[in-house]
UniProtKB/TrEMBL annotation:
Pfam families: ABC_tran (PF00005)
UniProt record similarity statement: Belongs to the ABC transporter superfamily.
Residues covered by the ABC transporter domain: 6-237
SMART domains with a match to the protein in the record: AAA (SM00382)
Name recorded for this polypeptide: ABC transporter ATP-binding protein
Natural source organism: Pseudolabrys taiwanensis
Record's keyword annotation contains Ligase: no
Record-linked SUPFAM superfamilies: P-loop containing nucleoside triphosphate hydrolases
Matches recorded under CDD domains: ABC_NrtD_SsuB_transporters (cd03293)
InterPro entries reported in the protein's UniProt record: AAA+_ATPase, ABC_transporter-like_ATP-bd, ABC_transporter-like_CS, ABC_transporter_ATP-bind, P-loop_NTPase
Coiled-coil zones: none
Length: 262
């Protein structure tokens, strides 16, 4: 196997607030191979978003190592694209202009920008909405624009924090299918945070269950379901077994996290 693209060793993050220290993450270890789809689930407040922000280079590291292709993360970079729950689209830009945003920063030629934007509009099924503004779109459509905008500058690593959290159940399922299709084609390395165990199993090669705070690996479960995965896989016995296994692990941690705040 080739060297992992992301290596996390003994990672820790401590926040200090009002003279009190909070260990969000402690002694967290993880290795991710290029092209792997990793989902992270865990109780609320266990440090999942903090970890993703550290990989993104938006949050400093308190202790341990966080390496991408062998180099320590020191800040954001074009090798990493982020898609978060809130659709951070520019309201004054059309769909096409939102997708082109990163390409303008990269100073790509107008012709290149147009070709990439058209390809991505088709990929996320929004060709007919290219001249619409975000306010005219549904939540699912906005999230598709956000994904297209991130894919436009072609990062090797996609960091996704509850990207479908604000969508209704039907749109969520459609977006899961779409993301799987995009991932099958592009094979990017993905770290995907979700509260939805079923979503994690459907999408991921491995599901990492975080412990209650301070966050670290409680379990690292390989999902051996054949790809590409049809949405009907969610009705299979294997899927059901994974769901029970992960839910049992998570339940203990959710109870521990609750006890702390009781
Ligand atoms: N900037 C900050 N300053 C102080 N404490 C912080 C800061 N950011 C996060 N924390 C604390 O770190 C812990 C982990 O937060 P984080 O947002 O990473 O959790 P999470 O697992 O993503 O939660 P959720 O699932 O609810 O989104 C929490 O106790 C949170 O209050």
């Amino acid at each position: 196997m080739s060297a992992p693209i992301i290596v996390v060793r003994g990672l820790g993050k401590r926040f200090s607030r009002g003279g009190k220290d909070v260990d969000a993450i402690r002694d967290f270890n993880l290795e991710i191979a290029e092209g792997e789809f990793i989902a992270i689930v865990g109780p609320s407040g266990c440090g999942k978003s903090t970890f993703l922000h550290m990989v993104g280079g938006f949050e400093s590291i308190t202790s341990g190592d966080l390496l991408i292709e062998g180099r320590p993360v020191t800040g954001p970079g074009p090798d990493r694209g982020v898609v978060f729950q809130e659709f951070a689209l520019y309201p004054w830009r059309t769909v096409a202009e939102n997708i082109a945003w990163g390409l303008e920063i990269q100073k790509r030629s107008k012709a290149e920008q147009k070709a990439i934007v058209e390809r991505l509009l088709a990929k996320v099924g929004l060709t007919h909405f290219r001249d619409h503004y975000p306010a005219e779109l549904s939540g699912g459509m906005k999230q598709r624009v956000a994904i297209a905008r991130t894919l436009a500058f072609d990062p090797r690593i996609l960091l996704m924090d509850e990207p479908f959290g604000a969508l209704d159940a039907q749109n969520r399922e459609l977006m899961q299918e779409e993301l799987q299709t995009i991932w099958n084609e592009a094979r990017k390395t993905v770290i995907f945070i979700t509260h939805d165990i079923e979503e994690a199993i459907y999408l991921a090669d491995r599901v990492i269950v975080f412990s209650a705070r301070p966050g670290r690996t409680k379990a690292d479960i390989r999902i051996d379901l054949p790809r590409p995965r049809d949405i009907d896989v969610k009705k299979s016995k294997e899927y059901f077994d994974y769901r029970n296994q992960i839910w049992d692990l998570l339940r203990d941690e959710v109870l521990r996290a609750r006890a702390e705040f009781a």
